[in-house]
Amino acid sequence: MATVSPWMDRSTASARPKFQNQEVLRRRYKWWTFLISSLNLLAVAALVVLMLQVSENWWLSAAMIYIPQTPLLIPSVCLLACSLIWHIRSALLNLTSVGLILVCLCGARFSMKPFNEIPDSGRNVRLITCNVQDFQPNFGQVLREIARFKPDILVLQEARHVPKMLEEYLEGWNWQHKSGLMVGSKWPLSDGELCHTSPYDRNTAMAVRVDSSGGPILLGDIHLMTARRGLTDLSVTSIIDGNGPASVDHHAFLRDEEARQTQTFFAGLTDDTPVIVAGDFNMPTTSSIFDDSFGQYSVAFDEAGVGFGYTAPCRPVRFWLPRVPWLRIDHILTSSHWETLRCEAGEFNGSDHRLVAAVLQRRDKNAPPP
Question: Which of 71, 195, 199, 342 would bridge 359 by S-S if both were Cys, CB 3.0 to 4.6 A apart?
Answer without folding.
Answer: 342
